[in-house]
């Protein structure tokens, strides 16, 4: 009797339906930093302030120096957007016409700090040695004193006036620009093209002007944008303390100072010019940090 072995039937695995995968959506393009709402609002604030400074007559027809006693301390309305002051003068007109003087002082102070600080940092970083030690110890002394206190000390020695306020604030800004410029020069002077220019026999002034300064200037310009808000706040603070323009000339800081005695009866007298200052400071700070972020990319 023959035994025939039969192989066991193959066991088939149950078929599993494939799990559907969700469709791959294209990556959403990131919005450009300068097209975000905050950046656009900052641009708008800066443009409005520049318009006030360059052509105040296009924004208001009221005389900032002439008031109507019957309208004194009137609240904001369609006739007087920012209300009126204690002499019946239109506060919006005084804010608009005071923009030019305040912005001029801030830009002058920023330019002074930028030029003097950049030159000091450029020379200290490239020459090194005793020159670097002397200049940097001087900047250390300036940085050890709070900026507003240093500006107050300088303007007290110089006297009253918008120009002297600008000089005082500019002196306080020198150390910041000098430190940043020196750091950039120390980085740039070790690069190949600078060493090649030195080995080729180029003079030091030519190397500084053609190779070092152009490649170290970008962070300084970005820093100037960031510091614009700080400088504007310092100029307004000294004007608030009475060191700015002589009354009745309108200036942002003096407008805030004039209304401090009327806060209980006329909140708009101090609040609205103060909000204008705050808006410009925040807008300049926002745009400066956007430029700083692009610079570090």
From TrEMBL:
Signal peptide: none annotated. PROSITE patterns: ABC_TM1. Keywords: Cell membrane, Membrane, Transmembrane, Transmembrane helix, Transport. Residues 99-288 form the ABC transmembrane type-1 domain. GO terms for cellular component: plasma membrane. CDD domains: TM_PBP2. Pfam families: BPD_transp_1 (PF00528). It is found in: Cell membrane. Its main location: membrane. One of its GO terms (biological process) is transmembrane transport. Belongs to the binding-protein-dependent transport system permease family. This is Peptide ABC transporter permease.
